[in-house]
Amino acid sequence: MPKVEKARQATLIHNLGIIYQRRGDHGAAFAEYEKSLKIAEELGDRAGVALSHGQMGTLFIETEKFPEAFAHLLFALSIFVELQSPKAQMDINFLKTLRQKWGAKKFDAAWRKKSGEAVPEAFK
Length: 124
Known about the structure:
The protein has a single domain (3-118), classed as Tetratricopeptide repeat domain (Serine Threonine Protein Phosphatase 5, Tetratricopeptide repeat). 81% of the residues lie in helices and 0% in strands. It has helices spanning 3-23, 26-43, 46-62, 66-82, 88-102, 104-115.
């Protein structure tokens, strides 16, 4: 399959995951995000990888699996920052939501453990 077709396929699969997520079918959504992620990795599509991880992060927020959400969202953010993508702001907003739902104390401890630094004001 040509690269463009695979990229289109990854996007369609990712969007199908979003539909499942909105319907509350978290298992099916996660399976679609994993498929999309695999294709993005195969293509070397860093933005696609970040999108899949970010969406997985939102799914984990919804299912209250906060440590998993944190890992996926932070990974997505790191890629978007590296790519200098405006989509980084999207993951900053998701991380803010995570901090509110998980609790500042737990979020801040996870951040400090991962980065060795205090949580930046942008996430508060």
